[in-house]
Amino acid sequence: MHQTCCVIKKVPLKLKGKFYKMVVRPAMLYGAECWPLKEKHNTKLSVAKMRMLRCMSSFTLRDRIRNKHIREKIGVTSVEDKIR
Q1: Contacts 24+ apart (CB under 8 A), 23-26
Q2: What is the distance between the alpha carbons of residues 79 and 67, in angstroms, rounded to a whole number?
Q3: What tens digit of pLDDT does each residue of 32-45 get?
Q4: What is the residue extent of each domain of the chain?
Q5: Residue 10 needs a FRET pair 20 to 30 A away by CA distance; which of 4, 18, 57, 68 works?
Q6: What is the top-level taxon of the source organism (predicted)?
Q7: DSSP state of 30
């Protein structure tokens, strides 16, 4: 387990962002075209996304880094923009 953690930390953040855009986000939004999107769904998707992005960038909530800055650093947009 320790070796896996070290390997993941060595992967560049932009590459992690590309993986997120190509694999994770489409899986999260699969079928969203036919959902009657409610604010509750939007919030849950946004929270799940930011948890993943914070984990990828090794930031925690205690670091008090704004979501906007994390998204810019990784190079992704908000889930709300993609759903629209």
Answers
A1: 24/52, 25/49, 25/76, 25/79, 25/82
A2: 12
A3: 777 787 888 888 88
A4: 2-83
A5: 68
A6: Eukaryota
A7: T
